[in-house]
Amino acid sequence: MAINFKISRLRDATLSTLECTLGILTSDALKIPIFTLEDKERAVKIDGKTAIPTGKYTITYNMSNRFRKMMTLIQDVPNFSGVRVHSGNTIHDTEGCILLGMGVKFSRNANLYELVDSREAVSIFELIVKNNLPKEIKLEVL
Fold it and tell me: What is the pTM (predicted TM-score) of this model?
């Protein structure tokens, strides 16, 4: 039986003025929701500054040449390559990848959202992925 994750992106007027996309990652395999942070959703892709398109994807776990460690990879994202799920605090830590956090806060000084306890969130997510391989692992981005 496949493991299914879902990212529900949060959309409102305040968020649309910022250069980021916030969401909530859920799954029957997760006990609590995890926050997501991506680059801004755009109609036309800007390399390293655009969230992946909504859709259904397969997740694998393999070696990242860039990060030099085993990581989750989101496969077959149209017009993207090497989309990873990893830790980070702000949009300055992503170039099209999805960042995870246990919480989120707004920094008025920097005028951006910051994830809280990102490494913990990634550890939880990766543990579920690793423990369920070779089952099919799916991600739906809404």
Answer: 0.94
